[in-house]
Amino acid sequence: MTRTPARPFRSREWFAAPGRADMAALYLERFMNYGITPAELTSGKPIIGIAQSGSDIAPCNRIHLETVKRAREGILAAGGIPMEFPLHPIFENCRRPTAALDRNLAYLGLVEILNGYPIDAVILTTGCDKTTPSSLMAASTVDIPAIVLSGGPMLDGWHEGELVGSGTVIWRSRRKMAAGEIDEAEFLRRAMESAPSSGHCNTMGTASTMNSLAEGLGMSLPGCAMIPAPYRERGQIAYETGKRIVDMAYEDLRPSKILSKQSFLNAIKLLTAIGGSTNAQPHLNAMAAHAGITITPEDWQTGYDLPLIVNMQPAGQYLSERFHRAGGIPAVLKLLVDAGILDGSVATCTGRTMAENVADARVLDADVIFPIDKPLMEKAGFLVLTGNLFDMAIMKTSVISDAFRARYLSKPGQEGVFEVRAVVFDGSDDYHHRINDPALAIDDNCILVIRGAGVLGWPGSAEVVNMQPPDALLQKGIQSLPTLGDGRQSGTSDSPSILNASPESAAGGGLSWLRTGDMIRIDLNQGRVDALVEADEIARRKGEPAPPIPPSNTPWEELYREKSGQLHEGGVLEFATKYRGTGLKVPRHNH
Ligand SMILES: CC(C)(O)[C@@H](O)C(=O)O
């Protein structure tokens, strides 16, 4: 039976090359050198790209060297032709000066590949933090049928009978080491045991968050996000994803037909329910911007009033393997749709609505997924903040500890309001160099502030705002101080920082004139953070030299700085957001 695609496949423009038999021959011949026959390429079957994000330097995604084998079989079984190609690698832990540089670079590269080659539809292999947003940003720009295949998290990590989650264990052990409770060898053992298998972070860090949100946006098959990388179901969903993308190619089911304002609002709400990463804020904004959708600070605030229902580190207790067995993202979506919190009518890659996809999903472990009316925490979303130091920053309220609440947020008659003395650091070298300097006299009336950590400053925006207190305070049992910065922090961190402050210091934002010793008033009820500095003094300081930032060290750093916007708008290459649907036109011949 021959199937007629809803829109002629773009690969026909290459391999049938109407009126240009010479070009068709040139396009066809080199694919044969690895065994594809001209008959296959001219048969009218869709060519399905597989954007391979795994490699030795992208270990969180390395599982995709395996998953794509099953994805290829799914593609072939459904009547498509697979063509695998590399995505620029992104490895959050290791990439210096920051992996944020790679998100926009991988985006650019993927756009050019999808646009410039005979690809009719694409599987986006995702895993580590930024592989998901960069791929989805590109899919929106090109707007050919696209589906996310997550690589999945690692198995749960165990150390001496206790769960140890990747990332989270690093920040917790770092504090223990500074307090003199563990040595370096024990630190490494904990880190190693938190990462027991292939896959990305097993906590609700940025990787799990972004893959969960891709599922929540309807861009992956239901259940895809949380299947641990080594599980048999991972190979099975790779096969199903391969089959499904062929159908999507025939149906011409493109990202623009799936992604809507409503689906992004759903994602913001899902983010609260799962206790997801603060990095989701710039990434969701970036994905929306490339899809032609504006997400405002008010839209972000709609997530604040909602409950946390997934009991996963860093906000909760468990890790992803247990969450998967508890029902994973489909079970959470089902609860949220049934409670009327999510709009279940949104489109998804299955061709069905979100509500239809999750109709049969169930919670299988009540210790991990809580009911909406008896959640782990009420009002657990990101608090959106503004003030004289920035236009927008966020605070992840689900990680505020009882000790932090008692110390800062519970002053009788003034709940949620506190004043603290700023100790300002210019980047993390400065922080590490001076944090234990007794001359700074840091105590628990201080807020640690880091600047020069944003898009322009670092460059790229670094995960540095979860600064820990000086060793002397840790040794006295003070686990955290308020922190503020124009950078990001790890999604695996349990620090209730005020972060992603934007515009950043290097763009002339308010943090640029802040001085050590200034008092800062934080009013969580009003959503404000203000330095208590008179207007004429602020004006005087603005005339002084700006805080130092390092020069660009590579050509891309320079170009990235020139073209990227601020974090509250997603930190995207701003000129790029006007390009949408580029794949609907086929570029002219090259010879
Ligand atoms: C653990 C990392 C590297 O910090 C990141 O992956 C995140 O979760 O934000």
From TrEMBL:
| Residues annotated as domain Dihydroxy-acid/6-phosphogluconate dehydratase N-terminal | 45-357
Question: Bias category Polar residues: which stretches?
Answer: 489-503
The superkingdom of the source organism is Bacteria
Q: Note the Pfam families from the entry.
A: ILV_EDD_C, ILVD_EDD_N
The molecular function terms in GO held by this entry are:
dihydroxy-acid dehydratase activity; iron-sulfur cluster binding; metal ion binding
What is this enzyme's class at the first EC digit?
Answer: lyase
Alphabetically ordered keywords of this record: Iron, Iron-sulfur, Lyase, Metal-binding
- Entry EC number(s): 4.2.1.9
Q: Where is this region: Disordered?
A: 483-504
Residue span(s) of domain Dihydroxy-acid/6-phosphogluconate dehydratase C-terminal: 367-570
Keyword Metal-binding in record: yes
The record's family statement is: Belongs to the IlvD/Edd family.
Q: What is this protein called?
A: Dihydroxy-acid dehydratase
